[in-house]
Write a structure and sequence with these properties.
The chain is of the alpha/beta class. It contains 13 helices and 19 strands. Helix 6 links the parallel strand 6 and strand 7. Helix 1 runs parallel beside helix 2 and helix 3 crosses helix 4. The chain is globular, with a radius of gyration of 25 Å. Keywords: Hydrolase, Protease. GO terms for molecular function: peptidase activity.
Length: 506
């Protein structure tokens, strides 16, 4: 498979429509699951025929399709997985996303023409693991979600340039290490490692004391109780330059269970942000023509400029990053340490031990920040979301829990979907209504590759499916039309700000 020459925007899809929507709105690649062996069983997912049709649709538009095959399989599933890989070979998909090493080697043997990507479930946290997987045939590692930005740099500096690094940039986060959680198994019998997670980490928890059964006490973050494990969502929109500069090859949007609108909005936003990066960093002109080959800014060992690049804020916070790193007390002779050293925390001692071993964090060639237009910075707030964070990328501002709720913020509503635009009568748009539309209302129309079109609904010209005039559109799932002087693509979403922002349970 041909290597990419610029950062990849990787979008989710839970069905064939989602795949096509992602491609229409600029995805360089789409990841999706089949009817079995993937880590999301809630979406409808794709059949083999869907994969064939979806791969053809994507390839005709310069995009690729990756299939999730990333469960932790049991013995009785191995033969079926072998048969499934053989079936996937004939669909035209481009890569398999795997977790289990046995499945990786099986896929390499059965379908050598398919690229192999190692899932975040594998928990890759260092360059030694990445290099070992590369030798086994992997051409991409999806880093553990717990990795900080400095770790991405360090891995990129110590692996082959043709080994892709995929990192998450947007969407829901899991409270468990790289998603390997057993809470759902214990509480519901639904296996989170087989795509059936019931998301009990989002539930509301209280405390019951052993000798007082039946008396429930809130664990009081608020008077209403607390949600112990309910992680914030990720939003790296305003930090993509840091992530790309640090060696990330593929930027992954989470959300295979999300709506087509979510896929369209976030794919369009992140693709547009990457285009801004490419122009402002001097790799492309405004029309997308290449000015110079793309390359990240990580300084490899022995590369010119390594000694001149001073530490930035990411490097300075590097050793605060992963509190789960092992304590080196057992590896250091306490008798050889001064009393002052002996009083240091395990992490401080570890940092000194690593430094004594000759380790030095990778630096990057400095560059001015990429400035995004306002509409891009605002886009993540126009889909349903929990409180946002930057995940674990910046140790000084780590992700935390939403302790007082598990619902989603919803400041914008989809009010319609475009069915057909015609130029007659100065332009007319036929829509399938979703929510109320009335004269004077400001509506945004999501267009591929550009800022949303702002449109004020006129006082006249609204019609029902029979062409009869109506005062407003107030019947969901009915066909209406309205004046529209600008051509609008089929399936484009029409959205409007809610009069009262709400919390939406999902």
């Amino acid at each position: 498979m041909k290597r990419r020459s610029k950062p990849e925007v990787l979008a989710p899809a839970g069905n064939l429509r989602g795949l096509m929507t992602a491609v229409d709105y600029g995805a360089d690649a789409v990841y999706c699951g089949g009817k079995a062996f993937g880590m999301r069983s809630a979406p409808r997912n794709l059949s083999l025929d869907d994969f064939t049709q979806g791969a053809r649709y994507a390839h005709e538009r310069g995009a690729r399709v990756y299939v999730t095959l990333n469960i932790l399989p049991r013995n009785n599933e191995i033969t079926a997985i072998e048969r499934y890989i053989e079936q996937l070979r004939g669909t035209g998909v481009d890569a398999l996303i795997v977790t289990d090493i046995g499945v990786l080697m099986m896929a390499r043997r059965i379908a050598p023409e398919l690229e192999l990507h190692v899932s975040t479930q594998a928990g890759v946290t260092n360059y030694a693991a990445a290099n070992a997987l590369y030798e086994l045939g992997a051409r991409r590692v999806v880093l553990a979600r717990e990795m900080d930005l400095q770790a991405v740099r360090d891995i990129r500096a110590n692996i082959p340039d043709d080994l892709d690094i995929e990192t998450f940039v947007h969407g829901s986060m899991c409270m468990a290490f790289s998603g390997r959680c057993l809470i759902s198994n214990y509480l519901t019998g639904r296996d989170g490692n087989h795509g059936e997670c019931a998301q009990p980490c989002r539930w509301k928890y209280s405390l019951v004391e052993e000798k007082r059964p039946g008396q429930v006490f809130p664990i009081e973050e608020t008077a209403q109780g607390t949600y112990l494990f309910n992680s914030q969502d990720m939003n790296m929109m305003e930090h993509l330059d840091d992530l790309i500069d640090s060696g990330a090859t593929s930027l992954k949007i989470e959300g295979r269970s999300k709506s087509a609108y979510y896929v369209a909005a976030m794919t369009n936003a992140y693709k547009s942000a990457v285009n801004e990066y490419m122009v402002q960093r001097g790799f492309e002109d405004a029309e997308g023509n290449e000015l110079k080959p793309f390359r990240d800014r990580v300084i490899r060992a022995g590369e010119e400029g390594m000694e001149d690049a001073g530490p930035d804020s990411v490097t300075l916070h590097a050793d605060e990053a992963f509190a789960g790193m092992p304590n080196w007390d057992s590896a250091v002779d306490e008798g050889e340490l001064s009393n002052r050293q002996a009083r240091r925390t395990g992490l401080e001692r570890q940092a000194e031990y690593v430094e004594d071993a000759g380790w030095k964090h990778a630096a990057v060639h400095p560059a001015p920040p990429v400035e995004l237009p306002d509409w891009l910075r605002e886009e993540p707030g126009k889909v349903a979301h929990r409180d946002y964070s930057t995940g674990f990328y910046y140790p000084e501002q780590k992700v935390t829990q939403n302790t007082d709720r598990s619902a989603y913020f919803r400041d914008w509503l989809v009010v319609g979907e475009a069915l057909e635009w015609t130029p007659e009568d100065g332009g007319r748009l036929t829509i399938m209504s979703r929510n109320k539309i009335e004269p004077g209302q400001l509506v945004e129309i999501l267009l591929p590759g550009e800022a949303p079109l702002q449109y004020v609904v006129p006082a006249e010209g609204l019609r029902d499916a029979d062409g009869e005039p109506v005062a407003l559109i107030n019947h969901p799932a009915h066909v209406f039309s309205l004046p529209m002087p600008v051509e609008v693509p089929v399936n484009a979403a029409l959205r409007s700000r809610t009069k009262r922002p709400t919390l939406k349970a999902e």
